[in-house]
Amino acid sequence: MSGSPAVLLRLVASAYQVAEKAGDIVRKVLHRGDLGIVEKEGAHDLQTLADRLAQQSICASLSRRFPKITIIGEEDLPDEEVKEDLIENGQSEEILHKICPAEYSGLKEEELVVWVDPVDGTKEYTEGLLDNVTVLIGIAYAGRAIAGVINQPFYNYQVEPRVHLGRTMWAMLGLGAFGFQLKEAPNDKRIVTTTRSHSNKIVTDCVNAMEPHEVIRVGGAGNKIIQLIEGKASAYVFASPGTKKWDTCAPEVFLHCVGGKLTDIYNNPYQYDANVKRMNSAGVLATLRNHEYYASRVPQSVLQALKSD
Ligand code: AMP
Ligand code: MG
Ligand code: MG
Fold first, then answer.
1. Residue 102 — φ and ψ, nearest 5°?
2. Fewer CB within 10 A of the end CB, N or C, for the chain?
């Protein structure tokens, strides 16, 4: 190959290493013991030291190497110098050696938007439900989610005897999704995954309307998408505002790479350009297969209760 790899490949190669470093930070803060919990908008919207340090690490590391990229992180942090030991300079060699899909090979830094959820599933992190936690880095171009990295810092934390803790997955449209074993949920069962801590009557009504054989209530948007691509659930149904663009940008790419879909509850796609509203006001419907079936079962009462974007 001649010349330097395409900007998008270099960005994903950096995001991969940066997500690993963020995962490390998330583990270290837990190990240290004091999580430094702050309530953002009440007890159901928390921030910990891990959220703050991981976001600083991710955003500062990426913006040093790619100064013209728009990077949007979940946490509202003071504009202060980031400590040098939070900076990650590495890039995944494996990703750098891939061939960038032709349609993305000429993208420029200023055309890319990065959505960062430094800790998805913070509430579960504070409650010790550690495998619910992910670090999400999503990359968008022209309003579409095109690449993403997911780190799961505590993957395997309950496995005995002890094995390597944590894993990193990545995906790019036109290239594929890597770092996990794709598996479909059983064809003859509707297994619905949904929130465990942000439920209400409309959320429950919508889940029940799917006539599920089983309902799994777990934390984290990233975690629920992992359940879909690893065959543990057939649909992620959340008929409520609450998730934001940084929750869905990276996860959506994984689903799209393996033939799945993520939309709002009206079956409309979300947009990811820098100016969009952060809130996913019309909820989330995500599936690996049979998206139309699940979309068709959303009751009118639920559609009326939620506003489309
Ligand atoms: P959950 O499925 O409840 O774990 O939510 C997935 C993601 O969306 C997490 O990042 C949550 O913090 C966020 N989220 C969902 N609902 C709400 C809400 N009502 N208020 C604040 N954040 C929410
Ligand atoms: Mg989140
Ligand atoms: Mg978060």
1. -55, -40
2. N
